[in-house]
Amino acid sequence: MNNKKIITIILGFGIVSLFVVYKIYNKPHVNVSDVKSDIIITADKIIDDFSSDEMKANKSYLDKIIKISGVISELKVVKQKGIITLKTNHDFGSVLCHLSDKATRKMNSLKEEQTITLKGICTGFLLDVILVNCEITY
């Protein structure tokens, strides 16, 4: 009787675990352009925050929809995805905005040294602040 109870608990736990993994794997992607920004900030401010206290900045910005403004320092396409680098007041850090497919198609109308506003999801800091799935909001 005791073995049956243990097997039932293990099977129940396994089924619940599989259901949770399935739901997480099939979670729909957020359409950044349709969602209100959680935070509106400049490239200089977000890099300052991450440089001064990364743990606190992670709590404030990680996985949030960020509307960010700055000056374009570089435009490039890597593996058919656009990346806009925003200048900051730090010598070694910048903000890298990985564009959505839709925004990548609009990249040819942009120029370096242009001021721009983008909206994306902050995924963290690795010398640069990284935003993904960015849309150009000008």
Key traits:
138 residues; 4 helices; OB fold (Dihydrolipoamide Acetyltransferase, E2P); alpha/beta
Describe this structure in words.
The chain has 138 residues and is α/β, with parallel strands linked by helices. Helices cover 34% and strands 36% of the residues. The chain is built from four helices and six strands; from the N terminus they run αβααβββαββ. The chain has a five-stranded mixed β-barrel with strand order 2-3-4-6-5. The longest helix has 24 residues, at 2-25. The model has no long low-confidence stretch (mean pLDDT 88).
Concise overview:
Helix content is 34%, strand content 36%. It is α/β, with parallel strands linked by helices and 138 residues long. The longest helix has 24 residues, at 2-25.
Write the layout of secondary structure elements.
Layout: H1 2-25, E1 39-42, H2 43-52, H3 54-61, E2 65-78, E3 81-86, E4 95-99, H4 101-105, E5 115-126, E6 128-136
Parallel strand pairs: 1-2, 4-6
Antiparallel strand pairs: 2-3, 2-5, 3-4, 5-6
Question: Can you name the CATH architecture?
Answer: Beta Barrel
Largest sheet: 5 strands, mixed, barrel
- Helical content class: 25-40%
Radius of gyration from CA coordinates: 20 Å
Q: Categorize the overall geometry.
A: elongated
Number of domains: 1
CATH class: Mainly Beta
Average pLDDT, rounded to a whole number, is: 88
Using the coordinates shown, work out and report the CATH topology.
OB fold (Dihydrolipoamide Acetyltransferase, E2P)
The helix tally amounts to 4
Estimated structural class? alpha/beta
Distance between the termini: 67 Å
Unreliable segments of 5+ consecutive residues: none
- How much β-strand is present in the residues? 35-45%
How many distinct beta strands?
6
CATH superfamily: Nucleic acid-binding proteins
Order of helices and strands: HEHHEEEHEE
Strand order of the largest sheet: 2-3-4-6-5
